[in-house]
Design a protein that fits this description.
Blueprint: H1 2-8, E1 13-18, E2 30-37, H2 40-49, E3 55-58, E4 64-66, E5 71-78, E6 83-86, E7 89-93, H3 98-107, E8 110-111, H4 123-128, E9 132-133, E10 136-137, E11 142-149, E12 154-159, E13 177-185, E14 187-188, H5 191-208, H6 228-234, E15 241-242, E16 245-247, E17 255-257, H7 263-281, E18 290-292
Length: about 290
């Protein structure tokens, strides 16, 4: 992998890297090779070199649960984060974090992304899962997405209506490739009002979510006609734990790592909660988090 190190720098190629360092859950086994790529040019060179290798793409690891067995092959984190603003049209590299984009837009007096300021991931990851909060989702602001298809080696542009955005889903979820950038449409706004809305949302998160403990955000998807966290609470599962994994005492929709959880603890707890909710209420609940690894 010396050639790879010459492209990316040796500091950006790590061997036998614990994935617990790269997920907000702070769990997960070893990645054979973990690489960080900070530009489109380097990415294309890297992918050409690794075209016969197994590659797993990750963002900030904020909606991710990596198995205790780890990930074979190469894990690639794309961190390019340039931003081009033309009036209300904004093109952003997929490696930029939602928080950074929200603050950039604040300074440019552009409104429409306040809902995503507290979503702890990258633009690419947010688009893949059509992330949302406070009644808004990525589909409401994305115009088009630039995607590199690993199967055809082509860069394709998907318009909003071609992206099949649904609740926590998109066309990119099951495609082999990587989102390179996204183009958004926002509106001119008042800087003080934008700032106040971001602060309001941040306070709501702080008040209602266990931000002081490792987690992958909301563990379960919203129910069809019911509030999942409410059912978990009514089932008396707040504070229930298996090993180091616990149903948050602050928000029943979150499973948190008390400090020594394993992936198995978290999976076992997810399955237990699903079973209890079905037995008590006849409702099936689905995980929102993505599980990857051997």
């Amino acid at each position: 992998m010396k050639e790879l190190e010459s492209i990316l720098g040796s500091e950006n190629v790590k061997y036998n890297e614990p994935m617990s360092k790269h997920t907000t859950f702070k769990v997960g086994g070893i990645a054979d090779i973990f690489i960080t790529v900070d530009s489109k040019e380097k990415l294309l060179k890297t992918l050409e070199m690794l075209k016969n290798e197994k590659i797993t793409i990750v963002g900030n690891g904020s909606n991710l649960l990596v198995t205790d067995k780890g990930i074979r092959g190469i894990v690639l984190k794309y961190t390019a984060n340039t931003c081009e603003i033309n009036d209300t049209i904004v093109k952003v590299d997929s490696g930029m974090t939602n928080a950074r984009l929200a603050n950039t837009l604040l300074n440019k007096k552009l409104t429409g992304y306040e809902f995503a300021a507290g979503i702890p991931g990258t633009i690419g990851g947010a688009i893949v899962m059509n992330a949302g909060a406070y009644g808004r989702e990525m589909k409401d602001v994305v115009l088009e997405t630039e995607f590199l298809d690993f199967e055809t080696n082509e860069i394709k542009v998907f318009k909003n209506e071609e992206s099949n955005f649904e609740y926590r889903k998109s066309i990119f979820e099951n495609k082999k490739g990587i989102i390179l950038s996204a183009t958004f449409k926002f509106e001119h706004g008042n800087k003080n009002e934008i700032d106040e809305k971001m602060k309001e949302y941040a306070q709501k998160r702080k008040d209602s979510q266990p931000l002081d403990m490792p987690s992958a955000g909301s563990t379960f998807k919203r129910g069809n006609g019911f509030i999942t966290a409410k059912l978990i609470d009514e089932a008396g599962l707040k504070g229930y734990s298996i090993g180091g994994a616990e149903v948050s005492t602050k928000h029943a929709g979150f499973i948190v790592n008390k400090g020594n959880a394993t992936e198995k603890d978290i999976i076992d707890l997810i399955k237990y909660v699903q079973k209890e909710i079905y037995q008590k209420f006849g409702e099936r609940i689905e995980p929102e988090i993505k599980i990857i690894g051997e």
